[in-house]
Design goal:
- GO terms for molecular function: dioxygenase activity; metal ion binding.
- Keywords: Iron, Metal-binding, Oxidoreductase.
- Pfam families: 2OG-FeII_Oxy, DIOX_N.
- The chain is an alpha+beta fold and 311 residues long.
- Helix content is 26%, strand content 22%.
- It has helices spanning 17-30, 43-57, 61-65, 123-148, 155-158, 237-242, 296-307; strands at 2-4, 9-11, 33-37, 75-77, 96-100, 168-174, 186-191, 197-202, 208-211, 221-223, 231-235, 251-255, 261-268, 275-276, 294-295.
- The strands form three sheets. Strands 2-3-11-8-13-6-5-4 form an eight-stranded mixed beta sheet. Strands 1-10-9-12-7 form a five-stranded mixed beta sheet, with no helix packed on it.
- Helix 1 (17-30) crosses helix 4.
- Bound molecules: 2-oxoglutaric acid and fe (ii) ion.
- 2-oxoglutaric acid (AKG) binds next to strand 6, strand 8, strand 12 and strand 13.
């Protein structure tokens, strides 16, 4: 069962930052998802990003496999490589993807892979430039998130979370036509994101759904519709831990809708050594911390390892 949903719109450039922070808080408590508008990235940048992404996924499989995801979690992953929902009965999710990581700042550093300049001359520059832009938006958003948690707006900067952050860009392509053996399989099976916040853009093809009550027996899935030019932002597990479950890391999935679909996710995640532990503003005598402190890098590596473990 699914129904349509109107997620809140957050204006990143609002001059009333206190009001924007209040709206973020409400959105993160109620949905764990919202749209982000007035972020300053122009339409042309997204157009170019999707154009170059499509060029890569249109290469022959053997060319793409030359850039297969390496030990530093950068590069190409073919269809079925990843299973986001461990209870899935299929070999793996339908999407193919490409990861680009930070140039420095984790112990997985400087291992990005790039298609050759001869085959895709503007590819690397397009991706590097988008990475910079979306990271800047992510940092601006995180300062509002700090305000939303009654913290100094530079809180996460001051604890070093975004000094050389471990943030990854992921280009995703979902197939159109399916083999009969894939009926019932998902583009991306049900999961919550691992990190702090995700900033997603899509080509407008439907398929993304969220489930707000992940623990209920009969799950209600709601469609997230496309808003032109807006990021779809969602809270990840690390922010849920930081906030002691005040902010929700909401379960989501992508249906196979019989139509090709492209999206680009930016996982805006902290520094490798950043320790994520319950914020003082989120616990008290009646609500003690639910999770022990965890190092960001350890958490992310474990979650990535699990979703790529072959069955
Ligand atoms: O492609 C989408 O709409 C969502 C992708 C996603 O959930 C993810 O990569 O974590
Ligand atoms: Fe996700």
């Amino acid at each position: 069962m699914s129904k349509n949903l109107d997620l809140p719109l957050i204006d990143l450039s609002s001059t009333d930052r206190a009001a924007a922070a209040r709206s973020i808080r409400q959105a993160c408590v109620e949905y764990g998802f919202f749209y982000l508008i007035n972020h300053g990235i122009e339409d042309g940048v997204f157009r170019k990003l999707f154009e170059e992404s499509k060029k890569f996924f249109s290469l022959p499989l053997d060319e793409k496999m030359k850039l297969e995801r390496n030990g530093a979690h950068r590069g190409y992953t073919p269809m079925y490589a990843e299973t986001l929902d461990p209870s899935s009965k299929f070999e793996g999710d339908l999407k193919e993807s490409f990861y680009i990581g930070p140039e420095e700042g984790s112990n997985l550093q400087n291992n990005n892979q790039w298609p050759s300049e001869e085959s895709l001359p503007f590819w690397r520059i397009t991706m590097e430039s988008y990475y910079e832009k979306v990271l800047t938006v992510g940092k601006r958003l995180i300062s509002l998130i700090a305000l939303a948690l009654n913290l100094d707006d530079q809180f996460f900067e001051k604890i070093g979370a975004f000094h050389s952050p471990m943030s990854f860009l992921r280009l995703i392509h979902y197939p159109g036509e399916l083999a009969a053996s894939d009926y019932g399989n998902f583009g991306a099976s049900a999961h919550s994101d691992y990190g702090m916040v995700t900033l997603l853009v899509t080509d407008g093809v439907p398929g993304l759904q969220i489930c707000r009550e992940k623990d209920k027996h009969s799950q209600l899935w709601e469609d997230v519709h496309h808003v032109d030019g807006a990021f779809i932002v969602n809270v990840g597990d690390l922010l849920e831990r930081w906030t002691n479950c005040l902010f929700r890391s909401t379960l989501h999935r992508v249906l196979a809708v019989g139509q090709e679909r492209y999206s680009v996710a930016f996982f805006c995640d902290p520094h490798y050594d950043c320790v994520v532990e319950c914020l003082e503003s989120c616990c008290g005598e009646t609500s003690p911390p639910r999770f022990p402190p965890i190092r960001c890098g350890d958490h992310l590596e474990e979650r990535i390892r699990t979703s790529y473990a072959s069955k």
